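If you are new to this repository, start here. Below is one unmodified record pulled from the training split, so you can see the exact layout before writing a loader.
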Amino acid sequence: MTAKRLADYLDHIEQAAVDAETFVEGLSKSDFLNDKPHNGQSS
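And here is the target side for that same chain:
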């Protein structure tokens, strides 16, 4: 893997982590678990 591809890959991972934090901001663990679809079914 080239240094450029590695940097792009790590940037993508970092952005995904920031997005995940934003999506759950303010949710309690219970709220998160109750909002999560189970068994591939939408809630």
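Two things worth knowing about this chain: The chain has a mean pLDDT of 87. The chain is about 65% helix and 0% strand.
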